[in-house]
From TrEMBL:
Name of the featured protein: Single domain-containing protein
UniProt KW keywords: Secreted, Signal
Entry GO CC: extracellular region
Highest taxon above the source species: Eukaryota
Principal subcellular localisation of the protein: secreted
InterPro entries, sorted: SVWC_dom (IPR029277), Vago-like (IPR053308)
Pfam families: SVWC
Signal peptide: 1-23
Location within or outside the cell: Secreted
SMART domains found in the cross-reference section: SVWC (SM01318)
Length: 120
């Protein structure tokens, strides 16, 4: 029985992500700061960033990466999910990305509540 429930939850997550999940990824221009050559300078956190290293700033539910060649900062945030029949649980901004992203409670075909964690 546990295998069937795990399988069902996996199928639900895969279907939701295949149809309704859109990871919110975007880029912003990296600022130039002469005090930090060869690094991106993020105006939001007011910090230099090493190229290719992922940063997860406190208080921001996102992962940021410096692309020095493109002179931009790539930012990944929580997926935008449309899950009919599901209820979004509150996110916890104190946690690091992606654990800070919201979870969803849905009902399976038997009416049992299933929690979908999109951070795995």
């Amino acid at each position: 029985m546990a295998f069937n429930k795990y399988y069902l939850v996996s199928v639900i997550v895969i279907v939701f992500c295949a149809v309704w999940c859109n990871a919110a990824t975007y880029s912003e221009p990296a600022a130039v700061n002469p005090a930090h050559p060869g690094k991106c300078f993020d105006k939001i956190t007011n910090r230099p960033m090493l190229p290719g290293k992922e940063y997860k700033p406190k208080g921001i539910c996102a992962a940021m990466t410096c692309d020095i060649d493109a002179k931009q900062i790539n930012i990944e945030t929580c997926p935008d999910i449309e899950a009919p029949g599901c209820v979004q649980l509150p996110a916890d901004p104190r946690l690091s990305f992606p654990k800070c992203c919201p979870q969803f409670v849905c009902k399976d075909e038997n009416g049992n509540e299933v929690t979908l964690d999109m951070t795995d």
